[in-house]
Amino acid sequence: MCDRRGSTTDTVHPEVSRRSVFGAAGGGALAGMVTACGGDEGDDAGSGGEQATDTPLITTGEVPVGEGTIISEHEVVVTQPEEGVFRAFSTVCTHQGCDVDEVSGGEIHCPCHGSRFSIEDGAPVEGPADAPLEELEVRVDGDDIVLA
Ligand code: FES
């Protein structure tokens, strides 16, 4: 694994949830706007490991439009390619398994060999990686984005 630097949120612990209560606040308008995606395709590129469904990852307000936020403790990067549309991907680079460490310019960056991935679908936009980041299914519950 690579070192984790910069634009990530606090500690590293895959199974620990920082928020156990969610859904009490309003924000129902966003609930139907999350894009579902397959996460059980059986790819062996690696992922953040098995994580319980309904795990709160981050709040909607913490994910900038046109960018994304890396949640190191869950090994997930959540993006918002357009307002109200949230996507989530494993942070594990499909090239050699480093963790992506930055989202900028509408792309997810791997520090090891320079691969960059689309925030829309995780597809590689710059190699050497030639496979997309594993997409994870998420939904909005109140103000939280949770693993579905
Ligand atoms: S491990 Fe990500 S570019 Fe090589």
Describe it.
With 148 residues, this protein is mostly beta strands. The chain has two domains: 30 residues, no CATH class; 92 residues, Rieske [2Fe-2S] iron-sulphur domain (Rieske Iron-sulfur Protein, 3-layer Sandwich), CATH 2.102.10. It is built from no helices and eleven strands. The strands form three sheets. Strands 2-3-4-9 form a four-stranded antiparallel beta sheet, with no helix packed on it. Strand 2 and strand 3 form a beta hairpin. It is globular and about 40 Å long. The relative contact order is 0.27.
> Could you say what the CATH architecture of the largest domain is?
3-layer Sandwich
Name of the CATH class of the largest domain:
Mainly Beta
Strands, count: 11
Query: In angstroms, what separates the terminal alpha carbons?
Result: 27 Å
Provide a short characterization of the protein structure:
The chain has 148 residues and is mostly beta strands. Helices cover 0% and strands 29% of the residues. The protein has strands at residues 56-59, 68-71, 76-82, 85-90, 102-104, 107-109, 116-118, 124-126, 135-136, 138-141, 144-147.
Write the layout of secondary structure elements.
Elements (H helix, E strand, L loop, with lengths): L55 E4 L8 E4 L4 E7 L2 E6 L11 E3 L2 E3 L6 E3 L5 E3 L8 E2 L1 E4 L2 E4 L1
Antiparallel strand pairs: 1-11, 2-3, 3-4, 4-9, 5-6, 6-7, 7-8, 10-11
Bound molecules: FE2/S2 (inorganic) cluster.
